[in-house]
Amino acid sequence: MTPVRKRFTAEEYHRMVEAGLLGEDDRVELLEGEIWQMSPIGSRHAAALRRLRLLLSPLEAQGRCLMAIQDPVRLDAFSEPQPDLALLKPREDLYREAHPGPEDVLLLVEVAESSKAHDLERKVPLYARHGIPEVWVLDLGERALHLFRHPSPQGYREASLLKPGDRVSPLAFPEVSLEVESLL
Question: Which residues form the domain of 90?
Answer without folding.
Answer: 40-183
